[in-house]
Amino acid sequence: MKSGKKIEFAPYCYLVPSMLIFAVFLFYPFFKTIYLSLFMTNKMGQAKLFVGLQNYIDLLNSKSFQNSLKVTVVFVLIVVVGGMLLGLVAAVLCNKAFPGIRVFSTAYALPMAIASSSAAMIFQIMLHPTVGIVNKLLGLDINWLNDPRTALYCVAILTAWLNSGINFLYFSAGLGNIDETIYERASVDGASGVQQFFHLTLPGLSPIMFYTVVVNIIQAFQSFGQIKILTEGGPNESTNVIVYSIYRDAFFNYRFGSASAQSVILFIIIMLVTLVMFRMERKGVNY
């Protein structure tokens, strides 16, 4: 007499609604993008002429796309480092209990609740060459957002500040999991505040640091709203990151095949960076 486990199909039925949602809003657009990247399209985005990898070859030989890659790398580095540094400093400052701590904590987490479009509009007024508060405080006369030398840094700093709010919450949660007694022992042994930070706080934050780095990198690569409002990829393509280049090619130049190829390249870049980060985490690299 054969014995075997009876397969229950009822549990899998509960997954059907979620799988349908994934299929419609995730899997279909993903494979459709790969499909369109192999074609020349009309203005309606319909595939008309199969060109294979020609869209990718044209992109890799395009000076505009090469510039977008360089701009994106610089933008991501500033956003990730700046956003994490701001969040970490704010979390450390609010880690101790003192009067008004809730007010400061709310203020540091506030960027998380502000829409990027709203922040971009406020930032645009602050950086205005004639009435902006930045020029008035510094006594300068710089057109920050229309100067190729400063536009990218301005947009990146705004994005880093927007990301600092959620980073503050991540690091605050991580600091809350560190045993306070180790600081007391370190103080008894004569360790200074700086030594405690580098030898106790940062190692204790290593797990949450890894997660925060990965999330910040992905968010930085996908930043769009603030660039659209502040600079629209200019001046002279100095802020033309890959995401905005995709938007411009698809909805201004109606080159959906090229835009799809750029989307696939962006996906590959993010996937490779994420895989490298996970490989480094498995090898025990501290962040």
TrEMBL record:
Q: Where in the cell is it found?
A: Cell membrane
Q: Which Gene3D superfamilies match?
A: MetI-like
Per the UniProt record, one Pfam family is BPD_transp_1
Major localization listed first in the record, in broad terms: membrane
**Sequence intervals crossing the membrane:** 12-31, 71-94, 106-127, 150-176, 197-218, 259-278
Q: Name one GO cellular component term.
A: plasma membrane
Q: Which PROSITE patterns match?
A: ABC_TM1
Look up the record and give one Gene Ontology term from the biological process aspect: transmembrane transport
What UniProt keywords apply to this chain's record, in alphabetical order?
A: Cell membrane, Membrane, Transmembrane, Transmembrane helix, Transport
Q: Which residues form the ABC transmembrane type-1 domain?
A: 65-277
Q: How does it sit in the membrane?
A: Multi-pass membrane protein
Fetch the SUPFAM superfamilies from UniProt: MetI-like (SSF161098)
Report which superkingdom the organism of origin falls in: Bacteria
Its family remark reads: Belongs to the binding-protein-dependent transport system permease family.
Q: What is this protein called?
A: Sugar ABC transporter permease
Q: What is the lineage of its organism?
A: Bacteria, Bacillati, Bacillota, Clostridia, Lachnospirales
